[in-house]
Amino acid sequence: MSTAREQPIFSTRAHVFQIDPATKRNWIPAGKHALTVSYFYDATRNVYRIISIGGAKAIINSTVTPNMTFTKTSQKFGQWADSRANTVYGLGFASEQHLTQFAEKFQEVKEAARLAREKSQDGGELTSPALGLASHQVPPSPLVSANGPGEEKLFRSQSADAPGPTERERLKKMLSEGSVGEVQWEAEFFALQDSNNKLAGALREANAAAAQWRQQLEAQRAEAERLRQRVAELEAQATAETAPVVEKEVPSQSLEQLEALVQTKDQEIQTLKNQTGGPRETPDATEREETQQKVQDLETRNAELEHQLRATERSLEEARAERERARAEVGRAAQLLDVRLFELSELREGLARLAEAAP
Fold it and tell me: Domain range spanning residue 73?
């Protein structure tokens, strides 16, 4: 039984990417679906290659060298640089276990390639693929699958079923041609993922802002309620103070009467004085004394009325001043309440706009 020149030694499935040659930063997907990625061993040239075929073209045709390094950049994604192809390949796996298996196999193949190079430089010769891989537990046959028993039929050892010349030529042609397949949907996927992250961040910021606005709204409501209570208290106080003022205004309504009464009494006093000091034919001492006593009484009464009048006027002025102060206080409280209500209205409008803008 003849052995084929190349044999698959490991196979898995993953989404294949290549670095954008223009930016050297963005990934370009190689297809819409996961592709089969395999390690091949070339017994004739004693080299190892990573090969992935999409349709009729080779997406990956990378010869593993001892200088290569496979790097895990996330739980399901890994990459390596191929200086010969002047590119960087990336693989996205379905699970972290598949990524770990591929990375371990990469390390084994790289070590086998290093030993093969050393033996080649020392003049040694590997007689078979199995001999070159025996110390690294990477047997060339049968095929090892990283995706479970359902994938074991993807490749079979070529030592058991060697392809014919036509199949071999077609495989060589496929491996020699490297190109990138349809990639647009993967690019859109990454763009949408980036946009989703930005939207998620914006939503978190909007939620934080909304929580802050709600706190401010509650504070404004509490302040407005406090101002309402203050206005009610001031109105009640003004009402309570208005009642005594009204009572004080009742005597003030008789001010004119009091003044008229004082004037009348003054006239009577003057008349009595004139009568007392005027000539009389038969002066009576007793009547004169009575008249003088009456005049004194009237003067005393007049002084009392004047004092009462001044006291009433002072009380009236004080009541009017107190009422003006109460009115001014109520006016200031009403203005402050209007300002708070306006701020509350603006706060509600801001919350409404924020709710409409949130996705």
Answer: 8-119
Question: Which pair of structure tokens corresponds to residue 65?
Answer: 């060298």
3-state secondary structure of 158: coil
Does any domain span residue 29?
yes
How far apart are alpha carbons 354 and 359 in whole angstroms? 10
The full DSSP string for 266-283 is HHHHHHHHHHHHS--SS-
> Is residue 80 within 8 Å of residue 88, measured between CB atoms?
yes
Which DSSP string do the residues of 18-64 spell out, in sequence order? EE-TTTSSSEEES-SS-EEEEEEEETTTTEEEEEEEETTEEEEEEEE
Cα–Cα distance for residue pair 280/258, rounded to 1 Å? 34
Q: Tell me whether residue 198 is exposed, middle or buried, using C-beta atoms within 10 angstroms of its C-beta: 0 to 12, 13 to 18, 19 or more.
A: exposed
Q: Give how many domains the chain has, as a whole number.
A: 1
Cα–Cα distance between 356 and 225 in angstroms, integer? 28
Residue given tokens 């050297």 in the structure block: 24
Neighbours of 107 (CB within 10 A): 14
pLDDT digits (tens, 9 = 90+) for 166-222: 655 555 555 444 333 334 455 556 667 666 777 888 888 888 888 888 888 888 888
3-state secondary structure of 87: strand
H or E element that contains 10: strand 6-19
**Does the residue 93 lie in any domain?**
yes
Is 89:62 a contact under the CB 8 Å cutoff? yes
Full-model pTM: 0.37
Higher pLDDT, 224 or 259: 224
Query: pLDDT tens digits for 96-134?
Result: 999 999 999 999 999 998 888 888 777 644 444 433 443
- Residue 92 sits at φ, ψ, to 5 deg, of -110, 120
DSSP three-state, residue 213: helix
Tokens describing residue 158: 């070529």
Q: Is residue 80 part of a domain?
A: yes
- Provide the CATH number for the domain around residue 87: 2.30.29.30
CB atoms within 10 A of CB 263: 11
Angle between helices 255-277 and 285-357 (to 10 degrees): 160
What sign results for the dihedral spanned by CA atoms 85, 75, 114, 2?
Answer: negative
